[in-house]
Amino acid sequence: MELLDMELLDTHNAANIFFTQAARPDLQDTPRLMVPRADGGWDPVTWGELAQRVERLASFLIDRGVDAGSRVAILANTRLEWGVSVLALMAARGSLVPCYPTLTAEHLAHVLGHSDAEVLVVESEEQLARVLQVWDRLALHTLITLGPMDVQTLARRAGLDPDAVAARTHPLAQAEELGRSALEQHPDRVRQRMAQITLSDVAYLVYTSGTTGLPKGVPLTHHNVGMSGMDWIAVNGPLVSRGDVDILWLPMSHLYGLGQFFLGNQIGFVTHLSDPFHALPLLPQVRPHVFMSVPAYWEKLTQLARAAATDEPGQHAALAALTGGRLKFCLSGGAGLAREVKDFFHAAGILIIEGYGLTECSPNLTMNSHQDFDFDSVGKPMLHVELKLADDGEILARGPNVFSGYYKDPKATAAIFDEEGWLHTGDLGRFTDQGFLQIIGRKKEILVTSGGKNIPPANIELKFKEYPLIAHVMVHGDGKKYLTALVDINDDVARARLRQTGVEPQGTLRRQPQIRRWVQEHVEAVNQTLAPYETIKNFVIADEPLSVEANTLTPTLKLKRAVITRRYLERLEGLYRQA
Prior knowledge:
The chain is α/β, with parallel strands linked by helices. It is built from 21 helices and 25 strands. Helix 2 packs across helix 3, helix 3 crosses helix 9 and helix 14 crosses helix 15.
C-alpha cells in the first residue's frame, strides 16, 4: 500500500492537523481534553475552546517575532497549557525546544542557550528561579508564565534587574488576551502564517544525551515527524478510532508523550490529563481504550493482578478491574518490557505493543503490530525505514524520518553518519528468520530506566572525580526503577583518613563502617547536583581495586562495564531486593 500522499503531507503538520480536526462540525463542541480538578472531577475542554486558545496565543507569538527559525522552549509538566503552547508555537511557524521540568540550572543554560531559544513558557516559580540563575547566558526576550509568580522578587534574588525581567514576562492569560486583540484587527493572520509552513521547517529541536558531555540538539523537520507519524498509523491505525478515551501522563517534554498528544489530535481522542502519581489509580475510573506507558507501570499492574487471586481466571479478572476493562491499544516504550509481563497481559486478552527507535529517527524505526508480533523482538522495520546490520552487529538506519545532523555540531554529525548516509544507532541487533529485530546490546553506554529515562552514566561518574577517597564509580540501573552504583575506593587514602580519625582498621579495609559513611556523604553530595531520576539510591563497595590486571579497567583506565557487572551482579541486584 502506498502511503506517501504528498498533498496530505504538505498541509498536515501538527498545527494544521489540529485546526482541520477542530473545524469539523461533529467535533467542535465535543471534549478534546479532560482536565483534572482538585475535588477529583474533570473539566472538559472542547475542540472549539482549545482551538480558540491556541489561535490567540499563536497571534501573540507572531507579534513577539516568532517565525521560521524561532525557538520556543517549554519548561513544564504535562498539562493543558503544554498542549496550548506547543500548538500555538507551531501555528506561528516556530520550533519547539522541549525541556524536562527537572533540569538543573546548568542543563537549562545549555539547552536554552545552545538552542538560541527566544521565548520560554515556564510553569512554576521554582523552575523560573533555575532559569534566572543563568539568565545572563540566554537570549530570551519573552517569558510566558503558566501560574502566579512573583517575578520581580525571583529576579532580585538572582541579582537581576527586577523591572527588566518583569518587562519581558507575560502571564498566559495576558498573552492570550493580547493575541485576541490582534486577531480583531487581522482575523486571518494565524491561518496565513500556517500556510507558510514547509516540510523542511524544523518542528522540534530536541536535546538528547550522549555517552558523555552535554546533550546534543536534534532538529526534526515536519517531514521527518510526518513520515514517522504516517508509518505509525499504518501499523497501529486499525486499533484506534475517533472517540477513544486515553490517559496522557507521559512527559510531553519527551517525544513519547508529545507523540501521544499529537496522535490524539489526528485520530480524535478524548484525552484525560494526569501525572505519574495518579495515572494507575485513574484507570478504573476513566476506563481508557488507549494507554501508553513505560515498563514500570505494566509491571506494577501485573504484580497487583497476580496478588489479587491465586488462579489465572481470577488474576485476569483483577487485571480487567485494575485497567477499567476497555483497553484495546497498549504501547510500552522507553525501555524493554519483560516477556512474562507481555505474556500475562496477552493471556488476559490485552496485547502490549513494543517498538524501537531513537530521537534522531523521529523516533520510530521498528514496531510490532497486532497482526504480526514477536514478544522476543522489537518488531519489524516501519514502511519507509531501511535497516541493516554492520559487520559488528550495529543497527544502521536510513529513511525520511531520520534527521540530517546535530544542531551546531558537525563533529557529532560526522560521527553518527557514514559515507552512504546510514545512521549508526550504537545499538547491537540481529534479525530473526521472520524478519523481526532483536536488540542484543549497546555499543553506546546509555542506561534506560524502567521509567523511560535515558541517562548517560559517565556524566554522573565524572562528578566523583573530585573526591580523593573514591577511585571509580560505575552507575548501574539499566531497566530498573532507579540507579545504584558500584564504588571503588582508593585504599591508601582510606587508610590515611582512618588514621587521622584515630581508627585502626579491624578486618577488611573496604568493609569498615566509617569508609561506607564517608562514601555515603560523597554520594549524597553528588546527588544534590543531579536531576531526581539521575540520583544514586544505594551502592556497594568493590571487594578489590578495579585495575587493568584484574581485567576490570581498559589499558586507558576506562571501566569494563560488562566485566564489572558480571562480577558484581548479585550484589547490585541485591540492592533492589532490599528496597
